[in-house]
Predict the structure.
Amino acid sequence: MLEELRGFAPVEAVHGNMDDPALARLLPERRVVEVGGVRIGMVHVPGPGAGRAERLASLFPGCDAVVYGHTHVPEAARHGSAWILNPGSPTERRRAPGHSMLVLDVEEDRLEPGLIDLP
């Protein structure tokens, strides 16, 4: 699947708790990518809900945004100068109200997230 996605466009990813061991060995637990002058931290498992925003911001100092997964619950909230983001899931909504995805618009060192509800 990862190689199939890379056939469409460059892919930056981290491994999740449900990934098979071969994929988990290929991908890091955390990473920081830079896109158009914007730094984005990525992690799948964010830890407990209590203190999540503070914890994620401290794990990725200097990042403009931190994107996490695991909960499948969409989020786009500011925490200080950083966005804390979860795209939800386009396939498995679990506890989320519906299916969703996240689009990040980056222009001139500025990031604007957009959550998209899917049918």
